[in-house]
């Protein structure tokens, strides 16, 4: 009976040292990815954690901010607020505090840009549409901060639901539209923003932030919004 021949051992497809080296490279890559992910900090989450720690330690939080930063937390990597944007917001906030203005402006980051809301009492006299001089520094600062990154800038006028009837403004639509237009004219002529970027819209009382059922709510609805579209 013929003897069965033992199959010859197959040659390894790669040297053993190369397998070990590949494992080491893979581990190093994972290590560096972890370091990178830890280094990307969402600033507002960090601030929230610090605020909680201050509360636990008995340190009172600051509630007198002129600029209220809302809706900043987006998990998508493309919509995390950049450090540069936060620095600009803080610069504007610092300037507004020095001017003695409080609770007149809100800033909202939407993921595609920045919305700056300004109360009508900061920008206009009651029932009027001319931009007040006291608003010039704030408008200039906001324009300087967010215009460079913006592709388009929409200025929207809003009112409360109290009717206005005059020869100049037959309704709140005309008043809100003229207010938005005058802000646009200022941004173009004084702040030197390219007119091709700018658009003015008047919504009247038809897009309230809150119900018009109290004087405080009506005051909140009387506003101008500047939307700096960045994406």
How is this structure best described in words?
It is a single chain. The chain has 231 residues and is of the alpha/beta class. The protein folds into 2 domains: 16-59; 77-229, 2-Layer Sandwich (60s Ribosomal Protein L30, Chain: A), CATH 3.30.1330.60. It contains 7 helices and 6 strands, in the order H-H-E-H-E-E-H-H-E-H-E-H-E. It has helices at residues 16-39, 43-56, 83-98, 120-123, 136-146, 172-189, 215-221, and strands at residues 67-70, 105-109, 113-119, 152-158, 198-202, 223-229. Strands 1-2-3-6-4-5 form a 6-stranded mixed beta sheet. Helix 6 links the parallel strand 4 (152-158) and strand 5. It is elongated. The relative contact order is 0.12. The model is unreliable at 40-44, 50-67 and 74-80 (pLDDT under 50).
In brief:
This protein has 231 residues and is an alpha/beta fold. The chain has two domains: 16-59; 77-229, 60s Ribosomal Protein L30, Chain: A (2-Layer Sandwich), CATH 3.30.1330.
CATH topology of the largest domain: 60s Ribosomal Protein L30, Chain: A
- Termini Cα gap: 82 Å
Q: Quaternary state, please?
A: single chain
Discrete helix count: 7
Strand content: 15-25%
Kindly name the structural category: alpha/beta
CATH classification, class level of the largest domain: Alpha Beta
Taking the sheet with the most strands, its summary is: 6 strands, mixed
What is the share of helical residues? 40-55%
